[in-house]
Amino acid sequence: MFMSEITPILNEFVKQPIAFLGGFASGLLRLNLADEPVKSWIDRQVGQSTVSTGEQSPSKQGPQSISID
Predict the structure, then answer these.
(1) Which of 14, 31, 50, 61 could be stapled to 26 by a disulfide with Cβ–Cβ 3.0 to 4.6 Å?
(2) What is the mean pLDDT of the chain?
(3) The pTM is what?
């Protein structure tokens, strides 16, 4: 029973051990990936912006109305 619950975690660890351990460590340290300097480091590693800064398009801002027939 315990092995069936831990198997997906072990599979992810085997596939990408460095990424898994990095995510595990950031979870333990409660790092927010949108905060500096973590965000800038991730951007430099990937070469592009990977974390949303909370900016939304004008159509997504504020409450929206819907009509129900």
Answers:
(1) 31
(2) 76
(3) 0.40
d(CA 36, CA 7) in angstroms, rounded, equals 34
Classified as helix, coil or strand, 10 is helix
CB 34 within 8 A of CB 43: no
Nearest one of 34, 5, 48 to 26, comparing CA atoms: 34
Q: Could you tell me the end-to-end alpha-carbon distance of the chain, in angstroms, rounded to an integer?
A: 49
CB 13 within 8 A of CB 20: yes
Q: What is the Rg, in whole angstroms, of the alpha carbon atoms belonging to the chain?
A: 19
- Rounded CA gap, 27 and 1, in Å? 25
In whole angstroms, give the CA distance from residue 69 to residue 67: 6
Q: Please state the rounded mean pLDDT for residues 2-28.
A: 85
Residue 23 has a pLDDT of 82
